[in-house]
């Protein structure tokens, strides 16, 4: 019998935990834009590649300066 | 296959070959070059031709943003070097745009980070203020044709409001689910009854859980109902508030006295469904701004000259007597007198008159004019808030009260509904008091509970919500769903001419006189290219096939014409007297005469270019409504328009913004329900005065005057279709209201008899709501399909 009391309270606490997660998600703005994140995730790789190649060329320029 | 521009995808007559690709104009080539130089070609890989074509090249100055006061008010965060700003960029329209703006740091190393909110067309940019100033950042975005705007307070507030509603909805949903689980034992038959202690515990948990629903999620119903009551108004919120309160008090009583399980599951479910309706209704067009006031059109700052020193001050700090300098392309922010010798002011913004006005030293210049040519010095006469423009804006009528209303019909219905319910509840209570006093309170509250008009409250948000969503897909955006009702009542339509019936950026050019050979055409084109006058621009566009020569000794005589020496010929374009021509007939304002070395060649007549299918559109709306056309422009187009109007006396020219407003007000006085369509600042007063004010825009995401609705100019043809669709939507609402009444009558039967069980309430209420939602959604979709709007 008592176990049901415990279970009910426990389930409520878990539910409350998820509710607070939801509220946090809303407050942090996650429900505001449902389009760009889905596109953004596809961009990152290309961007990183470019950055790398940029830094590489910078380094080689510096290296050239040192060498010269 | 027809060619399209590599950058912006628009078709074109003339092509610029560059880098092995075709472009429609130099503007597009320029942006392409900027991106190519920074190795940002990915922009073109994500989407085909993602760019934006620059429409009009108007100089934009952002210097005022570097002024400390202004900077502080605009930036969200600033610590001396790192700054963050949120900018509204209406031209964001595809994934390429997101990519480009989020990679701004590749264009300028001063940008640290930038992220886009697509729904709101907003970019949040963090940058190093020491490397790139805010003004430079704005200019950078403009240079790649993503013209940024500073966010208004209104836009900032809307964000907070929508977040709060989602949290409220979440809380109500959470409580609803849990209370329903806890009430589950009550739904079962009495044979499987639980331990009484457990039942007691479940009830009390439910009760505590429903408190946040009462005081947080559902509080708005109480607040609005109370506010309206004090204004002696009865809205749909009142019966809802009474119902919710009755359920809660009754349930509390039952739980405290252990006489029954209460109706808390119905209560929380009710609030949850109601909030879904609210949320659905609030999900309109975040990215569109319907409430631009005149200040949205002005720069935030202006150059003031004090003691021979120039400084940029926020425009609200301008005092009368201040000396200001306004540059080419800038808008004069306050009524002022001209200190410079002469000036040419483009008032198209205010009056719709497309030809610039000549002003002399000492003339009073009203706020809102755009400076053409050299920078001007002016003395401010009136503060910005008391000027001509602000006065126009203040002519604000009874619309504020309209804003709070969901729907006029629903409010009328709910008034009688509330009175009827209170009457039935009282009569029932009295009846039972006489026959069986123990049941009196029970029956009284039962009526209030079952009558809680949840389904009724959902009918309008869903029916009109769907309708406005479908209209939005067809580029007709409504500010409030109540506008749909306005559409159905319209019996008089007033059109503005310039920019509404005509395309403000296009002209039709006719030539009369000696035939022009290629050489002469080229002379004219070369000269026209030098001038900023709209007629010159029209000529330049018209003569696009001609060549261009070098122009020497260019002179512009304000209000008369232009001259220059081209290929040793002295060429003049302008008025008849300026070029030594004889005047030819009427309507001189739209004519450009030509003389080469003193010989008169002929003249061009420049007509407004009407939007495609405008005749069909006018004809179609004239079937069911009275059509009027107002124009701030001269009457050069009188004959063209007269042919299309049923009643020729409904055509008026030379209308000032005030005249237009008065015209609409007079129509309203005659008992007409007036719809006004206009595009510019000159129509704002009339748009506000009208029962339904619709702003016509070539690009709905650019600023358009404050209005009840915004329509994309290309959709104007379908105006009648939209009106008819609105009429169907209204019929659907009536049907939905009838359905919800039907449920109420059934429930009422049990309630009056004092036999309303919690289970019955818990089933009937969601069922009625759900069926109304399903009915309205399906039928609106069906009607839209039939009208080919989806």
TrEMBL record, chain A:
> What superkingdom heads the lineage?
Bacteria
InterPro entries attached to this UniProt entry: Cyt_oxidase_maturation_cbb3 (IPR004714)
PANTHER family reported for this sequence:
FIXS PROTEIN (PTHR41532)
- What name does UniProt use for this protein? Cbb3-type cytochrome oxidase assembly protein CcoS
Q: Organism classification, top ranks?
A: Bacteria, Pseudomonadati, Bacteroidota, Bacteroidia, Marinilabiliales
Q: Which gene encodes it?
A: ccoS
From TrEMBL, chain B:
What is the annotated localization of this protein? Cell membrane
Answer yes or no on keyword Phosphoprotein.
yes
Q: Which residues form the HMA domain?
A: 83-149
Taken from the record, one Pfam family name reads: Hydrolase
Q: Recite the UniProt keywords alphabetically.
A: Cell membrane, Ion transport, Magnesium, Membrane, Metal-binding, Phosphoprotein, Translocase, Transmembrane, Transmembrane helix, Transport
Annotated membrane-spanning segments are: 165-184, 204-222, 234-251, 263-280, 416-434, 440-464, 732-753, 759-784
InterPro entries found in the cross-reference section: ATPase-cat-bd, ATPase_P-typ_cyto_dom_N, ATPase_P-typ_P_site, ATPase_P-typ_TM_dom_sf, ATPase_P-typ_transduc_dom_A_sf, ATPase_P-type_domA, HAD-like_sf, HAD_sf
Q: How is this protein positioned relative to the membrane?
A: Multi-pass membrane protein
Q: What is this protein called?
A: Heavy metal translocating P-type ATPase metal-binding domain-containing protein
Q: Which organism is it from?
A: Carboxylicivirga linearis
